Amino acid sequence: MNDSIPPTELTILKADTAGRVRTPIEQRNALLDAFEQSGMSGAAFAKLHGIKYPTFAYWRKRREEARNEDDARSGPFFEEIEIQRAAAGPGGLGIELPGGARLVIDRADQFPMVAALLKYLEHSC
């Protein structure tokens, strides 16, 4: 027996009328886990464990499909959204200064003047 598969209890495997062996899902998953860690080719691993290669390849394919489905469900997705711009209110940006003075900036070219005014007020107080 190969050391890559942990020892398990002996199990009686059922066969169908055509003589095909039915491998329990737990054993199938243990074999697939061992294969992923073995570094062997699929054909060599299947031969070593007495599994017909087409059967083993089918198990691998089903596991990969299940993983892809899980990734698709939990992965990022895109959703179309519509952004509505708020109507520009009168006055743009308003600043209320201590003492009740209020400053309204409604054009970008006013920012340098407002910055200079605030700097002046900061030093004068």
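the 2nd protein, sequnce then structure:
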Amino acid sequence: MKKLLTFLTSLTIVLPLPTTLVSCHLLSHWWDKKPSGNQYSACLLYKDHQPTKIVDDRAGRGKLWWQLTNPQDGFHIRQQQKISLSRLTTEDQQFVNACESNMLYQASPDSINRFHQLTTTSFYADIPTLANAIHPLNAPYSLDFQGLIDNATNLAGLKLTSQEKDEFANQILTFFNIITKVYGQNVINKLLYELMSGTTMSNPNVVAATGFALWQMGGIQGMMLGPQSASLKLAQQQYDIGYWSNQSIAGTLVHEMGHTISQYAGLAPPSRYYLNNFDPNIIDPQTVRHLEDIVYQNPSDGNPMLFYKFRPGDALVEYLGAKVGISDDYPVQQKLAAWSFIQSGYGRGGNQDGGNEELFAEGFSQWLLTPDYLKGLNWEALNEFYTSHLLDVYQMN
């Protein structure tokens, strides 16, 4: 997964998937199905909801139809997802408008309170504790969270002050405390074997990259975070134009961690054992390749690792579509519902071959980083998916 900078009329960032291990489900397959069931609905997420709505703080630039019809085509959604506007109908547009209107009703206080309860358990007291706690035993490389903090910049583009560094560190700790509470320590310990920060990328437009490699009886995931991976100014800019789902300085890290969780979930349970297992009887640490060597290739020839064909990103789309009553036989409308609820042009476009895994990572960021005053019914649905449905479908309990 690479995070690239592209300069159009506005700055955009692209994060394509890194390996051929992820099976992409392209939208071009949609049109060949013989559907039955509910194609459209009133797109009501919850019958009993708060009477007031949150405010759209991006002046409509996160709205799906605006991005699909953007005359400058800055979001690449149609190109990468193989969509022709001529195949979308007035009913489709009305459905999207209903979804984007209804999702603005405020999330229930109970759902927000339950989310905050996830932060009450502290697994990691500080950044060194975090790095040591989740780093695989005997792994040959380190997790440089402190470097990410030291290289971070604020809205003015300047290095963080001491207070701002403390605030950023607390955001990182809160994030990892939440996902540890939700997914469990055993899962978190399987996600990363290396995290490099402040790395000068060979491509100057690359912001961040996550590598995933499997081979016979072994597997690793690692992350490279470039100098702009924690730029609050860049995050705010990308959010304002509707490209990212959040404006947090931790957004790139959280997005990339969403990919690591998706890759973990997509492995069949027996194969997960071999991730980050540096037992010398299984993997010789001296043979593990550095992240810079594996991020653009996959040394998995002949590996027996088992994957779910139904990817976590696909499960997310199906879940959100079903949440508003759309039949599985209408994947177009399920996708439109999911795209409406996850307000990210990047997530909607996916990588250069389409797919739903970037939507999964952007939805993951939107779930974890949306401030309370912007949490609508779409956030409430994402909260249910990432804290419950994902675990049930992929046997992560």
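The longest strand covers residues 206-215. Residues 124-306 form one domain.
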